Amino acid sequence: MTWVRGGTIGRGSFATVSLAVSRAGEDRFPPLMAVKSCGVEDSATLRNETQVLSRLGDCQEVLRCYGDEYSCEGGRELYNVLLEYAAGGSLADYVRDFGALVESDVKRYTRSILRGLDYIHGVGFVHCDVKLQNLLLCSSNDSVFCAKIGDFGLAKKAEKVAEKKGFRGTPMYMAPECLSGEEHSAAADIWALGCAVVEMASGKPAWQCQPGTDANALLFRIWGGKASPETPSELSEEGKDFLEKCFLRDPRKRWTAEMLLDHPFVAGTDVTVPLKQSDEASTSPRSPFDFPEWASDHTPSPTPDSEACFDRDLNSWLNSSSHSWTSPADRIRQLVTDQTPNWSVSESWFAVRNNFWIRFVIFYFYSCY
Asked: Boundaries of each Protein kinase domain copy (predicted)?
């Protein structure tokens, strides 16, 4: 291989994300990357991501892909996708660590995401899983970060989305029209963006569900009623109006990314933000030589109670191209169980830290450069 695998920084149901270091003398890749890997037999979603990213080309607001390779490790054949390394983690990590963002930062990140969505939609694709976990903070210099859209495993060409109806994405970010298993169009990405803005501004999930919440009733209310995420009181009037345009229930009336870029809430806003530093160890290295002593218990593993039910449902969606439910009610029931779900999970991704491999990467760099 033209790169060396480092420590694992994330795991999901089908793939693992690791740090990757390009070998000495390798000019095709940057010194530090992220590599997303899975067994060849389970690589359909990851292959789709590679194909979509290759079609999107070079967009500053989309996580860059440097290509794909195969490797044989531990007696298993792996499919690997080499990606831009998001030194700041995800916006979900940021909100978890620091809480709600100040409105000026919400504006900047939202404008960056909108520019990415405008480009994605303009070339005929729909992301289908916009959420804070898939909005990544990449460094434009040592102290300034911009948001980029990542994880295109569920993305599709717009016309294919319309042809193949069914669930795609994460339930609590789905637009009402998607909860009935109908079209997931570019308008659905805008609804999901609105949910992400609510989370950035409030520091809480767009749909705040307490233990004991009747998930079935809530999803029915989103689909068939007039419910939309509550607008954070902290937002300015411009911000509240922006969310109203995102949460129009008729997808034909919902504003497009192009239209929202001209909204007063984000118009003329810069897209880079100085990244806040936690009092604890930094969550990510800022350069190949900057590896803090990460604490292994900083991000606990998900518990069965919080994620098991949505893992089962969403794994079945990702592994099937169509569904045979006979009514919208059946489709909604497929989304829930008696357990209280983690509303933001689609593939059970969680961050992990491995000090041994971090030290290995440091040693490798010092020995090669």
From this structure: 3-266
- Position 324 scores a pLDDT of 40
35-67 pLDDT, tens digit per residue, is: 999 999 999 999 999 999 999 988 999 999 999
pLDDT at 34 over 50: yes
Task: Name which of 186, 192, 221 is nearest 206 in CA terms.
Answer: 192
* Residue given tokens 């095709």 in the structure block: 28
User: Are 107 and 267 a contacting pair, CB within 8 Å?
Assistant: no
Look-up: residue for tokens 């694709």?
A: 125
Please name the helix (run of DSSP H) or strand (run of DSSP E) that holds residue 297, with its range, or none. Answer: none
- Pair (125, 77) in one structural domain: no
| Same domain for 230 and 135 | yes
Percent of the chain that is helix, strand, coil (3-state, to 5): 35, 15, 45
Residues 6+ apart with CB under 8 A from 27: none
What CA–CA distance (Å, rounded) separates 84 from 67?
Answer: 10
219 lies in the same domain as 259: yes
Question: Which two tokens mark 186?
Answer: 């570019």
Are residue 45 and residue 185 in the same domain, yes or no?
Answer: no
Which residues sit in the known binding site for ATP? 36
Residue 4 carries which side chain, given as an amino acid letter?
V
Residue 38's pLDDT is 96
Report the distance separating Cα 117 and Cα 111, nearest Å.
10
Q: The whole model's pTM is what?
A: 0.74
Q: Is residue 75 part of a domain?
A: yes
Annotate 129-149 with DSSP letters as a single string.
--SGGGEEEEESSSSEEEEEE
Query: What are the φ and ψ backbone dihedral angles of 100, each rounded to 5 degrees?
Result: -60, 145
- In this prediction, residues 175-195 reach a mean pLDDT of 89
Q: Compute the distance between CA of residue 276 and CA of residue 354 in angstroms, rounded to an integer.
A: 23
Q: Is residue 63 within 8 Å of 138, Cβ to Cβ?
A: yes
Helix (H, G, I), strand (E, B) or coil at 157: strand
Mean residue pLDDT across the chain:
77
Could you list the active site residues?
Answer: 129
Look at residue 63 in the predicted model and tell me its pLDDT.
Answer: 96
Q: What's the pLDDT score for residue 126? A: 96
